[in-house]
Amino acid sequence: MTIYPMVRAAAALVLCLTLTPHAFAAILSYDREELPGGAVLLVKESHELPIVIIRASFQGGSRYEPVEKQGLANLTARMLPRGTQNRTASAIERLNDLLGGGAGTAAGRDFSTASIRLLTRDLKRGLVLFADVLRRPIFPRKELKKMKAQLLGSLQRKKDRPGYLADKAFRNRLFGLHPYGRQVEGLPETIRKVNQRDLVNFHRNRYGMKGAIFVFVGDITITRARNEVLDHFRDWKTQMDPPPEVFASAVDTGEKMSIIKIERPFKQSTIILGNRSLSRRHKDFYAARVMNYILGGGGFESRLMSNIREKMGLVYSIYSYFAAGMDTGHWRLMLKTKNSSANQAISKSIAEIQRIQEDGVSERELQEAKAFITGNFATRFQSSSRIADYIMAVERLGFPPDYAEKYLDIIRAVTKEQVQAAAKTHINLDTSILTVVGNLDEAKLKY
Amino acid sequence: MRKIVLLSITLLLSPYPAFIALGDGKSPGHQTDSSGSLRVPWEVIEHRLANGMQALMLQDRRAPSVVFQVWYGVGSRDEPKGKTGISHLLEHMMFRGTKKYGPKVFSNIVKRNGGSHNAFTSLDYTAYFERIASDRLGLVMALEADRMVNLVLKRKELEPERLVVLEERRSRTEDSPTGMLFERLRASSFVKHAYGNPIIGWSQDIKNISLDDLKDFYRHYYMPNNATAIIVGDFSVSETIQLLEKHFGPIPPRPFQGRPRMKEPPQVTGRRLVVRKEAQLPYIAMAHHVPNWRDKDGAALIMLESILGGGETSRLYQRLVRKDAIALGAGTDYTYVSVDPMLFYLYGQPAPGKSARDIEEAILHELDQLTQKGVPRQELERNLRRIEAQTIFSMDSHFYRAMQLGRASIAGNWRLVDSFLPSLAKVTSADIVRVAKLYLRKDGRTTATLVPIPPKGRHQGQKGVAKQEVIRK
Fold first, then answer.
1. Could B91 and A6 be called an inter-chain contact, meaning their C-beta atoms sit closer than 8 Å?
2. Residue A127 CB partners (closer than 8 Å, separation 6+)
3. What structural domains does chain A harbor?
4. What is the pLDDT of residues B27-51, one digit of tens each?
5. pTM given for the model
């Protein structure tokens, strides 16, 4: 059944923590242990439902693949369940279905993740499968060939999606060959170059106890979790050859905004405007988060939504966010509007950016933003999967388990001056890139 | 995030049973009943207000927050001709102010209290929800009770919202090849029933809906005796009942004319349509009229949906995507919980170099195999286990649990969730073959094909493109 939510939630790529003082302590207290071999174990017990959510993270994101083999990290992750020393792909699929179909593997830009969701009764069997897929994949050639064909087809299909086209062009211009400028799936020409040996090597290098993070949430104890992880993974060595150097290619940060126009016969223009910006560990991240809530991250409460959607009716979706990564990041504003309104929506968006940079925010806006960010925290953890995602994100950033408390304190202390300074420093129209995908004859862009 | 299909998320469609029969029932720490079934915390408390409003409460104390939802028995199936999309437009207008609060106040109050909110409209229902700390439950009840009866509809607020909805339609349908394909497929499948109309409405209708139309529609459907409140999370039942009585109790019931009744005449000949649109790859989808939960065949149809299209070992995925690699995706979709009987879909997207016809033939071949040879016991068992596990997994989320209750309640009886899994366990291979033959017949099938056309500016023709938009056989 198709449902029509009124607002598409802005993709929350940023780690957004919000909390009420007493609420979070109970929900988010979890155990952290360092295991032999360099892995970390994080466990949150909760016995209300007979379910255990398990996630394992590895330093196997696309940042560790050579530029000429873009897509290698993704292919490695996705090929893990396609055959092991003990099981064929079909046997793995059958077992996974029997366990409820809750296993999956994926690569991101910084990390790769394997996850499985099990009924308590299936824990033993599920972990055997989980370990087999992670430790003993053989990446059969025949399966790899099919997987590559499948990926090439899905890349072609994605060209129907204006959001994908805009994101690809925008990232590429913003970060060049830096992992944040590339698509995790890779490109058709680089996917074709990846062979079985590459996968075997990438797996040997990037997967193992060293740097691994295991998260268990649900119907399990810390003792049981520790024993299971050690039983299955204790002797798992990683080779860890030095990874390729990650570099951000020089971006032409000229005097004014640069523009990418992509002609496609869509009814709407899909527009991304943004610039390189802070990393997740930057000290200004908190003020920037509050600022962005007021500007474009706060749903109906945001200035962009109020003025460009509610008042003018120009868009259905409009939002902005900081995608703050491990070593760098970006800020972007995204909107869709009928082609003939593109100019108006862009100029109105730019005016909103300039207004928050020049005039800052009101005391009321500041207080309401902080009230939301801190008050909403407890309500976000209404499922074990959400809790697992949170715990994993905190650990990946290298923050301690009590990070939530500190986060709350820092948010509370953010001032109007800091908010305005964050707008001025971390949104930069001069070095920004405007990307427009749509029917350019109708849009008649003046940019 | 949806991958290839565009219709729904299967998890969202499966109702929850009250007690789930698990194989061994030996999981430590969980109660089992006398039959050895595992007992999961799914105890719904029902409360009915004197004005006819129903409330369903489900406690889950894992986090000190609640999901509060108000469901109205109105959706696109209830819309008058020429006014399609009015339920959804009204849903948007529900955020634009009441007698007590001006426009935008609703959202501001919820958010500065740390809550989040939204709404959704479908064929059978319109629903509003908030997610908020438990101690603010009364606050969101006050807001929902207020807009149940005190909505102010003004032209100044309507006109920009109409534009917003037209933008929404462009994103969802007009710029989405598969969005458009499924819209046209449903429109061709139903000749009489309003399920044939798009939920978001036809553009022309969205443009024509007047302020008076909205006012009439609101008065007709928004009343306590056509509403269900659902509360899932950490709350006290007695306090919550008091809050419901305080906020919703004083709203008088109104005479409710009921929802329109309609029946789709049986489809006796196959139909075909072609959607030609700029797209990278073709797509094919077939729709068949099927009964829903009210019919004894519903359980067998759920199993059929699962065997053909559920999970990695489903027949369509294994044959088309994994073995022959002729499709990028393939699957099924069936709506069991609905007010009136809906459709059973079979669909697939060809891999580059393959045609929609290749996919259609392969899907129908798999269907033939199933009706000729039946389903081995092991395969039945595996599907049953998968559905069972997924049903429990889906309980992890407060929001989905509330969704299941809401949908079942709107469809006619929230308790139907009780009988769901046990009824699946009784389904035999012969039942599945019988319903496949009976409902997925050629005569009752509507087949829609997406035929990509080159972007404008290029003029070369394409082989095999049908000349007519709709061909009826």
1. yes
2. A54, A116, A118, A228, A232
3. 23-233 (3.30.830.10), 258-443 (3.30.830.10)
4. 333 443 333 344 455 789 999 999 9
5. 0.91
